[in-house]
Amino acid sequence: MPGPPNKKQKRQDYRQAQKENGITNMPKKKFYRQRAHANPFSDHKLTYPTRPEDMDWSSFFPAYVADTQSDSLPETTENSEATAKLPPKKLTKDVEVVDIGCGFGGLLVALSPVMPDTLLVGMEIRSQVAEFVQDRIRALRIKDPEQKQYQNIGCLRANTMKFLPNFFRKGQLSKIFICFPDPHFKQRKHKARIVSTTLNSEYAYVLKPGGIAYTITDVEDLHNWMVQHFDAHPSFERVPEEEQEVDPCVEVMRTETEEGKKVERNKGPKFVALFRRLEDPPW
Predict the structure, then answer these.
(1) Which residue from 274, 275, 156 is spatially nearest to 204, judged by alpha carbons?
(2) To bridge 164 with a disulfide, which of 55, 150, 152, 160 should be the other Cys (CB 3.0-4.6 Å)?
(3) Could you list the active site residues?
């Protein structure tokens, strides 16, 4: 006779039951456990658009879908071919804020009421963690009797080190959050850090002039690394500390992420730096 199910099987059974029975309660983290870090250079099985215009955001932000026409397929003998030719549904507004490596979604959930008229998306490379955030958002939406809260946040599994420009047009974003990223302490691992000369150019591409890149970490060496690389990039300038401290998003970033709460419990330091996207020089 088979023995009792192991922990992995229990996690799979729980998540499957969530899908089949509908998500009514908040998901439990213990059923979505995964290694703390993922290799961004691996060929993960990811779905991503070939260009931003091909991205269908409708399933992430159903309350903002502009196209209210029938979803029925046109008459054809090959429905699969017709589906492939259908353009993605448009939203009434664009996604403007991205949380890179959103973890378990604490920042997204906290920012949702702070920025009620802005669409925010979390991008997380770990499949089970991204699934947790998606289930968390669904549960929060269901718990709202008026079905108005938390409609402006979504989460998808993605590798931003490889595919960020596939999702967003030039100058589309107003804010990017990089909260408590993997420090990759070993020097040979520094190439995997989420802030680098090359990646900062991608952040500059998707941020509109005046947009802000927010960074926070509890590792001083990583903080200095991020400051050094953003300061060295011609498209960014550091936001003065007095302006930084009155930004409402900074306090949320400090206190509402899961990593931030852990650092707070351990009475550890938090190093914050903001960088503004500059106007492109005239040609």
Answers:
(1) 275
(2) 160
(3) 182
